[in-house]
Amino acid sequence: MKNDLFDIKINNSSNPWFDDYTTITFSRQKLQPLVDKIIKDCSDRDCYESAHQYDSLVRLALRNVSEEIGSNRPLLRALMFVIAEQMPKGLLSWHNPYVAAHRSLTSIYAWSSPGFAEARRYNEIYGG
Questions:
Q1: Across the strands, what pairs with 7?
Q2: pLDDT top residue among 128 and 4
């Protein structure tokens, strides 16, 4: 039996040269209703032609999360962790709701990272 609690380490440093990690403990049981909603919303979407179309469904499910928690980055990491644990083996195309949800959460997490938008813009202008 898996322990209900797990830890997520988040880098809180705004300095790219020095890390400042904080560990936050999450409960699988408390996250499960949100995971179930995200997976349900991403299910039966075979008509979607690209993976990014799932992003709006995931963002809609996250809309009901209280903004009083502060940064949502730890929550996104915890949701990615739980979804990855529950992802069934086999078909791993983006039509699989677990794959689609995990990919969308990864994208949302990346865009919420400090400096990501600026780095992306720099890469598009000047190249990698």
A1: 25
A2: 4
